[in-house]
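## Example record

The block below lists the input lines for one assembly entry, exactly as stored, with component labels intact.
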Amino acid sequence: MNFVVIIFGSALMVLVGGVFSMLYRGIDRKLVAHMQGRVGPPIVQPFRDVQKLMMKESIIPDGAVQWLFKAAPFICLITSALLLLYIPMFGQPALLGGFDGVPGFGDALLVVYLLILPSLALAAGGFASSSPYATVGAQREMVLLMSLEFPLAVSVVSLGWRIGQVTAANPFMFSTIAEHPIWSLVGPLGVIGSLILLFALLVATSGKGAKVPFDMAEAETEIAGGILVEYSGRNLCLFYVADIIKAFAVSALVVALFIPYNLSPLVGVGGPVPSGIVEGLFFLVKVFVVMFVSISLIRTAMARFKISQASWVYIIALTVIGLVGLILVAADLMV
Amino acid sequence: MAVGETEKATFTIPVGPIHPALKEPIRLALTVDGEEIVDADVFVGQVHRGIEWLGMNRNNPIQSIYTAERICGICNICHPFSFVMAVEHATGITPPPRADYIRAITAEMERIHSHLLWAGVAAHEIGFDTIFHLAWRVREEIMDLIEYVTGNRVTKAMFQIGGVRRDITEEQFPRIRQSLDYYKSIFDQLKKVFLDDKTIRMRTKNVGILKREDALKLLTCGPSGRASGVPKDVRQDQPYAAYADLDVKAITPDILTGTVVGDVYDRIIVRLLEVKQSIEIIEQCMEKMPPGPLLAQPKIAVLLKTLTKAEGEGIGRAEAPRGEVVHYVRMEAGRETLATWKVRAPTYVNLMSVPTILKGMQIADVPITFASLDPCMSCTNRVVVTDRAVGRKSVMDYERLHQLSIEKTKELQL
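Predicted structure tokens for the full assembly:
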């Protein structure tokens, strides 16, 4: 693959992905506000937040580990932005995911691991802040991270395993997943199993989105913003944008894994440009649905969990649910 | 320490004086081990405003009613209520019966608004902002009613020594009934939201337990005490104003659930049922309200003269939304201001139970547990002795106060 394409393509992808992520956060906030009976901020509010935060002074506490405190926001943003390059976006193949016989740099499994990095950077920043609130927040973030990993891995691996049964290609490649959508492979039992896996993944998405009920690392009323308590100005802005991009990317991951369908053959649009536009819009609709269900709805309808409860939800409840889904998908293959 | 043994590291998390979980300044020092709270201590005194001093040095008793109203933004009926009762007790003025009923109606309206406000705050503390917004929207109805009846949403200025300043007339009854019917119609919905919601139950059941024995030992009053199964209510035990004519019974959670646990969930039950009780009390008041004058002495100049001449001491007790509020006054003949004015707000005694209910909880439980007592800091303060020369601050503790009392007693015996 052409080196120049990668450089410029990445820059464009991060820019476009970033803009749409922020727009989607604005829509999310507006929708939640309406569901709560409020007017809510204008949809462009995230852009204004970023603009304001960039103008503010970045204060670094005296007791902080300076280099780590400053580096953590950058690592968090870069790793979040990296997700945009590995997940298929706007109906296009993932930029670094490999397509049309060209070997890529990574697949769905890599994305699962990449998802850990922003959280690690957040926790590192929290520990480096030398504030008791941030320390508690960072501990919670680590616990949540470890609890989340298992159900997330269960649903991604089950999906890949099932697709691997019908093709010789790497089943975790997004292009392979798009060629063999899970719903067309399985029978009725497998559909139920896949729905259960989708449910597990959606709840895991909610946890990755770090909003109520899984926002205990920030938990405004408990630990005053926890992990971010000492961050301000530009550093806080980087975390803010990283969080927004991550939420968008995780939703796009759900879309790529479970709804990898294209619209243009159905509506009969030909040609690369018109079909590209149709696919891009269709992708936005799909991501919106996933985000609305896994983030907006859940955070409107629930109270914040305690970290022990959230951990239980993920490690025990959701893992068991995921395994049941896996067993159903496997049983479907045998029947 | 032997090799391979690790020490359990505890560290202290300061909550407050300024913290998002606290609506008013107070400091909690929490010793935590991981997420678990090993020890807790409370430091108050950040909002001492010298209100009692104003009443003893600057204002005459009638002006002090309005100062008393400003002790707290939420309990701005029960403080003047208790205050005027104390002055009436000291001077022997008796308010006319109609005034007693109007006082009771306003006090119950305050209870409804205060409990709904608390419900919203409690939901916010556990991160359930949707319920917070809904509860406060529901609260707007009673705020509108309060404004309709008294002319003001917050500081209502209804009270006068020997009566009330405004009447509640027959023409106003339909509007009042309309609001009460609104609350009766949504009560089941409120109950469902607060008592049946899965996440609310997860966050409040078996959290912040205050056992009956502890509640008795720590003198916990108001809804917090009743939630622990102590059926104490000033309106029931020492009925004041119109409450003697009305049917008031202390509400404990076993009315609904059959058992008393004394956790945050029980405190929600008690407050919710008290909203219903208040609605019933207002309805009874409207039925039974006798005709008659509003004031024992309508001429303020005459009243002031009586107060200046008065000699004696008096106590006023009222059941505030948070518990029992006590005002004590002493009056000296020829003195325009009060000789002594002492306010004891319910939060002052309820704070004593904070270390007990926080121990063994998680950090995540602190906001809701603390908020479940419905603390009102601006009503509360404690003596801090400052030695300016040395720059040292010390808090008067039990031993020191005990010692001072012994010294004082000896001094009196001589």
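The interface with chain B takes residues 35-38, 132-133, 135-136, 139-140, 212-213, 215-216, 219-225, 300-309 of chain A (CB under 8 Å). Chain A has a mean pLDDT of 83.
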